[in-house]
């Protein structure tokens, strides 16, 4: 809650592979339909942030992750997004629910994609951009 307005609780996942590439999804739905971002979504009622991160990653990417520490928090419009560092522990990469495409990107691949507003500045400030 901020200044009398309620924000929708959301989570995002910061996932790097062994080569320093970052996991990104191309969003199907607004906000940011057609643009690329880190995977994530809304926290369902009764769900913890950790549960939401695991569910959202499985739905959007086919990957099973183990959530780690909070990397940072950002408010985008009505969404209050807590982004967690995650480690892949299983699954097979594929675009799923709410994702038109999903891929690991290095710095050059990242720079070539149309990204959601503010992503580069936020990830850069947190020190988690792809290598």
From TrEMBL:
Record's keyword annotation contains Hydrolase: yes
Matches recorded under InterPro entries: Nudix_hydrolase, NUDIX_hydrolase-like_dom_sf, NUDIX_hydrolase_CS, NUDIX_hydrolase_dom
Cofactor: Mg(2+)
Keywords linked to the UniProt accession: Hydrolase
Signal peptide: none
Pfam families hit by this protein: NUDIX
Residue intervals passing through the bilayer: none
GO MF terms, alphabetically ordered: hydrolase activity
Keyword Hydrolase found: yes
Nudix hydrolase domain location: 5-129
Family: Belongs to the Nudix hydrolase family.
Protein name, as recorded: NUDIX hydrolase
Organism: Pseudonocardia benzenivorans
């Amino acid at each position: 809650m901020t200044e009398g307005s309620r924000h929708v609780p959301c989570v995002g996942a910061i996932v790097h592979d062994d080569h320093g590439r970052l996991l990104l999804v191309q969003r199907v739905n607004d906000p940011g339909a057609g643009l690329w971002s880190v995977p994530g979504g809304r926290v369902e009622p009764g769900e913890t942030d950790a549960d939401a991160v695991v569910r959202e990653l499985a739905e959007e990417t086919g990957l099973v992750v183990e959530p780690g520490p909070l990397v940072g928090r950002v408010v985008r419009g009505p969404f209050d997004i807590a982004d967690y560092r995650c480690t892949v522990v299983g699954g097979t990469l594929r675009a799923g629910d709410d994702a038109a495409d999903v891929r690991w990107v290095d710095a050059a691949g990242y720079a070539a994609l149309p990204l959601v507003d503010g992503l580069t500045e936020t990830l850069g400030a947190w020190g988690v951009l792809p290598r």
